[in-house]
Structure formats: C-alpha cells, structure tokens
Amino acid sequence: KAGVTQTPRYLIKTRGQQVTLSCSPISGHRSVSWYQQTPGQGLQFLFEYFSETQRNKGNFPGRFSGRQFSNSRSEMNVSTLELGDSALYLCASSSGRGGNGQYFGPGTRLTVT
Amino acid sequence: QKEVEQNSGPLSVPEGAIASLNCTYSDRGSQSFFWYRQYSGKSPELIMSIYSNGDKEDGRFTAQLNKASQYVSLLIRDSQPSDSATYLCAVIGGSEKLVFGKGTKLTVNP
Hints:
The complex is a heterodimer of chains A (113) and B (110).
Chain A: E1 5-7, E2 10-13, E3 19-24, E4 31-38, E5 42-50, E6 53-57, E7 64-68, E8 74-78, E9 87-94, E10 103-104, E11 108-112
Parallel strand pairs in A: 2-11
Antiparallel strand pairs in A: 1-3, 3-8, 4-5, 4-9, 5-6, 7-8, 9-10, 9-11
Chain B: E1 4-6, E2 11-14, E3 19-25, E4 32-38, E5 45-50, E6 54-58, E7 61-66, E8 71-76, E9 85-92, E10 98-100, E11 104-109
C-alpha cells in the first residue's frame, strides 16, 4: 500500500498570508490527524477528522482549520500567518479511531518570513 | 503535570548494549500506548503499540506497560548505530487524542 502523502513538501510564505496543506491518507484509512512539530514544543495535536467530521481539536487558535473530503483526503488551512507558525506540519492516518496507531506522512515544512 | 513525560536525554549507549527509554503519563484512563521512532529530518515511524499490562516483544524491541504506575517503557536489545534517533512515546487518553511526549534522543556509539 502507498503511504501517507503530503503536498507541498516545502512552503515559504510571508506574514499575513494564508496557506493550504494537503494530505492523502493510506488507502482504506478514514481517520486523518494533523500535528504541528517545532523544536521547542514537540508534536502538538491540531485536529482529527473521521468520515468528513472533525472528531477532536487541539488548543490552537481559530486561524487553523481543516476539512476532510469524501475520499478521506484532508486539507489544513492557516490564515493570517504569523512568524510562530513556522513549523513542520505532519499528517497521520489510521484505520479507526487511532487506537490502532497512526501512520505519518513526510510532512510539509512551512517557513513564514 | 504534563500529560506524557519522557527524559529528553540525550541517552548514549555503546553498540550491542540495551537501551532503555521511559515514559510516564498522567491520564489514568489511558488505554493505548505507542512508541515512535523519528530520524533527524524525517517524520515519526510507528514501531510498537501496547494495550495491556506486561511486556510485548517485536524483534529487538520490547515495550513494557504498567498501568498502575502509569509507566511505559521501550527496551532496545543489541543496540545498533542505526537505532540512533529520537524516540517518542504517545498515549491515547480519555480525550481520545494521541498525545506525544517530547521525545528522548538516543545515540548508539559504534
């Protein structure tokens, strides 16, 4: 099976802009979760989608949003970018509610200047 | 108290030795526990999952869970230089979110 794919792999944006990241889960996986990883904070949970519904949300401002499509592909949007949003954004998929373990994509490296 | 805590390390062991990585968690209702390995510049890779008290072995890796002590560990036997990475402990608690520790950096010296 193909793994989790994320596009784009690298992005450079300026403050105030918005960005959309895309994630395609492993075939058959219906749960997609998004994480932000920074050296200081480690892996921080953003949100989880299952069958097009947001099932869980982390402690991030409303500038961070997401959605999931009927084919389980997911997008994450960050509006009004801030310098502190520079991070590695990781998508992970699982077959169920995550209890089976999550499988990560390669990530999108976002740099905000 | 942080939800999932790990010693940040770095932990350095000689090749062939046993590396022991530890993790504690705060949510007593947690039911699912995972270990991920993350090489520098790469994304985390799931290497072990454990759900019941006791030991679970997979090749050179053994995960140990003690729910009464809220403690989960990972032992790597016959450590190899290729095991050098950051190891992340992750727990699913009552919130049903996967919560990660900050990771322990392991270096295996040839």
